[in-house]
Amino acid sequence: MIDAAQRIALREWRWIRRDRKQVLLVAIAPLVFVAILGLVYSPRKVLHVPVLIVDQDHSTLSRALARAILADETYSLGGYADSSDEFPRWVDQDRAHVCFVFPHNFERDLRARRGGKVQVVVDASNMLSGSVEVTHAATLLGTFAVGVETLMIEAKGGVTGTVALNHALPIQIGTRAWFNPGFTSNYLNFLMIGILTIPVQLAGLLVSIGSGVSEYGERRSAISCVTRNPWSIIAGKVTAYVAIIYPVCMAVVCTPCLFFGAPMAGSLLTVALVTLWFTAMLVTFSYALSCILADPLFATEICALITLPNFLLSGFTWPIFAMPKVLWPFAYGLPMYSFSFMYRKLSVMGATASDCLPQMAVLCLWTLLALGLARYGTYRILKNGSEAEGSHA
User: What is the pTM of this model?
Assistant: First the structure.
């Protein structure tokens, strides 16, 4: 029995050596996942949240407070503006996620002990960074205010630091939440949008994974009898599978707002067109892999494996701006991020198509790549068919 088991094991190892790509995929993928996972969460807490500073007071104290905010590792400068009304546009462009407003007469009111008020406006559509922004802003402003008050009381009253500290009053903080006015922990509006892109992506990739491989098997040479135009073949292949999977993908995308009360603040037509584009790109990319690899199992494994890194880097489990910068090009360049971010902007934030131009540019690049690979894969199919016809002749 032991001898038979050894011979079977040797037989399997010889077979494995002939199909090393499967072993490499299985052996390398877990290491890649753990490396990505470790890098994504290596900061350990949300840092470098881009902020918009609105300084309407232009006083020594307001400038000192702005410097204190930007000196804290939680925040990084996104830019300056004259009014908080510009904040939604900065959020749409992913340039800022919290806004600090120092109103007119801020320093004067504080010195007169009328309680200078700082307005903190947060992007509440992102629950991960939004909760951090509110909590940390209150702590930072309170600490800064007590320090300033203590020094002022010491200077005016000639008392000790301890007595001054006991009489110090913090700056008043007003919080305003955009895109989630109640600032509820509504993960339906945030996390579900990221998660639902997983089945959409898997469906788009896996539905046509055998469409190219089959042309090397039982349908070998048959396709060249219909047409030898590669673009006609690509269009026909993609149309057939998109017609099947697109209604399913639209049902997935619309389910949260139709049945669970999630918002659809933007245009449903724009959401439908973006979903159609994303689905068609995925089907084209899957067909290309199917043609090039000519191995349905291996192509399926690759399609399934690329979904997890896509989700990890999509910004829904951890804000992209808080990731190590080495990951930014990959995160912002992935198609899942572009689609999920566009869907969140359109549905939750009420954005328009013009607000999604950066994400559309990324999808355009992926569409061109998918078409190029599909063209190459179709060329291989036609070449294979010609060889089959030649052998029959």
Answer: 0.75
